[in-house]
Specification:
single chain; 3-stranded antiparallel β-sheet; alpha/beta; 4-stranded parallel β-sheet; 220 residues; 7 strands
Length: 220
Amino acid sequence: MSRYVAIGEAAKAMGVTPITLRRWEASGKLVPERTPGGTRRYDLALLKPELFLTEPKGRKTLAYARVSSHDQRADLERQKQVLELYCARQGWTFEVISDLGSGMNYSKKGLKRLLTEIVDGDVGRLVITHKDRLLRFGAELVFAICEAKEVEVLIINKGEDTSFEEDLASDMLEIITLFSARLYGSRSRKSAKMLEAVQKAVVDSSTPANCQSHTADVPG
């Protein structure tokens, strides 16, 4: 693919008309280069950098998907499909790792494998649909490790996840279960009563009448 193109090809790549590019040039928004003969040439590597992304030399692209519960298996498959489509469109050779477990659980099999491969220097790029798909708390630590290992991190959707309420409810129940067991004993009546009350509150707050819907910016 040629990096420098004429105005017509540049306009097509950006989804605008040549007139728009000329208007941007007049306003100083986008100034093309010129050949010795004065012909405009546009740098596609600047206009559409995704067209020139290449595999990090000798390292793989890993995509990671996760949901909290078995009830969300359909969402897990949707995440995997989005990741596969996105990576395939970029022309990358990739592998998808998936987990079924809470965002509070740091011992999930897929997550441990992902971190091991990053630390070992085998990964050049990490792709996820949303930040919270890695961990509920601690995703920034994973990103810091990626930065130290020169791993490019791509988050497809920066908005709120579509499964936010359900996922957060599952994580809250895990926290309450852990702390009530430590305080009262996992089999105590007080612990059981507390869990029952929390579960009811979570279910009540997650009903359609009590929570708003959120639509993620997922490519179609």
